[in-house]
Each structure stands twice: as C-alpha cells, then as structure tokens.
Amino acid sequence: MAGISYKAWAAGLLLLLIIAEMIWSWRHDKKVYQVKETLTNLGIMAGFQLSKFLFAGMQLSILGWVYRYRVFDFEPGILLFLVTFVVTDLIYYWFHRASHVWKPLWAFHLVHHSSLWMNLTTSYRLNWFTAIVTPFFYVPVALLGFPPLMIALSVGLNLLYQFFMHTEAVGKLGPLEGIIDTPSAHRVHHGANPLYIDKNFGGVFMIWDRLFGTYQPETEKVRYGITTGFVSHNPFVLIFHGFIDLFKGKMKYKG
Prior knowledge:
The protein is mostly helical.
C-alpha cells in the first residue's frame, strides 16, 4: 500500500466520485450521463494525460528560462505559495477569457464546451495541445520572480479544483456564490443560453468575474454545448474540429 503513489490515490478518488455521480444520476433519473459521450470523454482524457507527459518538460523549460531573468527574489515559503496561487488564478481568468473571445484560442478550447452533458467526466474534456500555448500566459509571473514549480503546482491545483465544479449533483452554495467558483457558477459558464455566454471565467475565485464584469448567477436552466450544436463522439474529430474550421475560415463562435 505504501508503494502506491499519490497520483494513483488521486485517480482512484476521482474514479470513485465519478461512479458515485453515476449512481446518483441513475437513482434520481437525472440523465446526466450518456454512454457514447462518457466514452468520448474518457478517450479525450487519456490523450490529455499523454500530452501532459509529452509537454510538461517544455512548459517548465520555458518558465525556468524566463525565471533566470526575474525582477525580484522572493523569500520561499507558504506565504509565497499562497500569493503565487492567487496570482496564477488571476492569469488563468484572463487566459480563459481570451480562449473564448479570440478565435485561435477558441480552436483549442472548443472541445471542452462541445459536450451536451454536464458531469465529472466533462472536466477532462481538454484539448491535447493546449499545453503548447499555456506557459506563455504565465511568463509574466515567472518574470516577476515566482518560482516555476510553484506556478506549475498552482495551475495543477486550479485544474484539479475545477474537476469538482463539473456536476449537477450540487446545488447553489449560498454565500460562497460569487466569491469562489462553484458547480452552479460553472454550469453557467458551460451554458449556450444567450444570458450565460462569456460568463464566469474564474478557475477558483469568482472575484475576478465580479471585478471585470463577467459574473452571472444561475437563474435559468442551463443548455449545454456550443451554439452550433452537436459535433461528434469521435475524440480526434473533436480535438481537431476547431483548428480545421479556423484554417478554413469557418470558425463560429460559441462564447
């Protein structure tokens, strides 16, 4: 047991949560899972895990090279990590927002919003090539003097937190709404409803959305997917769909 890595424990926990959500959906007739769609999400997730293995070195190399020219030298410690976490969440907000409003980045991000269902497996419906562009948004953070490993850990924890946001099993969380990202806030983000387009970009904190005018509470039933409708159940079609439309000049925007 002691030889099992923390990654294996984490993967096991996430799998148990997915199974629990499936049981909840079945017992309450919520129909938040669809067999073909779930298999698609798992296929995309497998490819994304491989891409992390392939691109992790490149990402850290870019941030490490920039860090050599840092402006400040900060005292290492828990306080620095907490500040790094908040700063990277702010950067994530703008990266995420840019991924919705700039077509070349939307070509990467489209796959995440193309599902017509919201469940925990949707959280890993991520483009395999996003890692190529992601580190460049965090270059200013490394240049300021925040250690690359702290940046990488903060971003990783940010994405892990968002796993729990992709569910309909949790309702509104009272006073936490509008302060941190919640399942309700993230359902809004995935909505193709006109009211919900381009809303709730924050990864962990909703304060950025409040500050920059993109916060929207959940007030009507969410209609998931992109405005152009169903794309495919083929992971390869979904991953490359946005790029093909971009190069053909047919890119349509969901928001």
